[in-house]
Amino acid sequence: MDVFAWICAVALAATFLVVGVMKLVVPREKLISMRSFGWAADWSSRDIRGIGLAETLGAIGVIVPWATGIAPVLTPIAAVGLTLIQVGAFRTHWQRGEKREAWGNVSLLSLAVVVAVIRFIQL
Distance between CA atoms of 59 and 56, rounded to whole angstroms? Predict the structure, then answer.
């Protein structure tokens, strides 16, 4: 079970680290022009950076506390946070009629739930 949890956590962290950092460093106008980031037109630069920061911290949180043994309870909490971000992302994409992107959020949401549940059980 632990190997499966690590595989899920690493996949989750890698994905959120990439998209989170992208939201932190890529200008809003450039994000809007990218196919999967049309939603950025509805959000301010500050909001987008806030989401990016939350995603980046969540990516770190699903790996570092568990790996170091320092406050490991933060790992499932970070996974719950990433789950909530994906609920919001799904809702945004669904309301904008972006069904394909919305279902991509369901996969990440599912992965985050798996990590949260396994790590809470392992505490």
Answer: 5
The answer to whether residues 39 and 93 touch, using CB atoms and an 8 Å cutoff, is: yes
**For 56-78, how does the pLDDT look when each residue is reduced to its tens digit (9 = 90+)?**
999 999 999 999 999 999 999 99
Provide the CA 90 distance to its chain's centre, in angstroms: 12
Separation CA 20–CA 22 (nearest Å):
5
DSSP, collapsed to helix, strand or coil, labels residue 71 as coil
Query: For the segment 86-120, what is each residue's pLDDT rounded down to a tens digit?
Result: 999 999 999 999 998 899 999 999 999 999 999 99
Segments making up each domain of the chain, as ranges: 2-122
- The structure tokens listed for 89 are 């992302």
Q: For residue 34, which phi and psi values (nearest 5 degrees)?
A: -85, 140
Instruction: Look up the pTM and report it.
Output: 0.95
CA distance 92 to 32: 14
